Amino acid sequence: MLRFLFRRLLIAIPTLFVVVTLAFFMMRAAPGNPFIGERRLAPEVERNIMAKYGLDRPLPVQYADYVGGVLHGDFGPSLKYKNKSVLQIIREGFPKSLLLGSLAMTLAAVLGVSLGVLAALRQNKGADYFAMSLAILGVCIPTFVTAPLLVLLFASTLGVVPTAGWPAPTQSLATAWKYLILPVVVLSLPQIAIISRLIRAGMIEVMRSNYVRTARAKGLPESSVVLRHALRGAILPLVSYLGPATAGVITGSLVVEQIFQLPGIGKAFVTSALQRDYTVVMGVVILYAGLIMFLNLVADVLYAMLDPRVRLS
Amino acid sequence: MSRRLILAVATLGALLLTASCDSHGGRAPCPAGKLCLEYGNTTDPRSIDPALSSLVDEDHILGDLFTGLTQYDPASKPIPGIATSWDVSPDGLVWTFHLRKSKWSDGVDLTADDFVYSLRRLVDPKTAAEYANLLYVIKNAEAVNNGKLPITALGAEAPDPYTVRITLAHPAPYFLYIVTHEAMYPVPKHVVEKWGDKWIEPEHWVSNGAYKMTQFALGDRLHAVRNPYFYDAKSVCIDEINYYPTTDIVSAERRVKRGELDFNDSIESNRVAFLRRPDQMPAYVKVNTWLGTVYMPFNGKSQPAFRDVRVRQALTMAIDRDFISQKLERGVQPAANVLVPPGTAGYPGGAEPHWASWSLERRQAEARRLLAAAGYGPNHPLKVELTLSNLASTILVFTAVQADWKEVGVTATLAPEEGQIMYADFNARNFQVGSAGWIADYNDATTFLNLLRSNTGQQNYSDYSNPAFDALMDKADHEPDPIARGVDLAKAEHLALEDATIAPILHYVSKNLVNPQLTGWKPNLADWHRTRWVCFKGRRAPG
Amino acid sequence: MSTILAPGSREGAAAMQTAAIKGRSLWDDARRRLFRNKAAVTGMIVLATLVLLAIVGPYLAPFRFDQINKNDVWAEPLQAGHLLGADALGRDLLARLLIGLRVSLAVGVVATFVSLVIGVLWGSVAGYAGGRVDELMMRIVDILYSLPFIFFVILLMVTFGKNFILMFVAIGAVEWLTMARIVRGQTLSLKQREFIEAAQAAGLRRGAILLRHIVPNLLGPVVVYVTLTIPGVILAESFLSFLGLGVQEPMTSLGALISHGAQEMELAPWLLIFPSMVMVVTLMAFNFIGDGLRDAIDPKDR
Question: What is the value of ipTM here, to two decimals?
Answer without folding.
Answer: 0.85
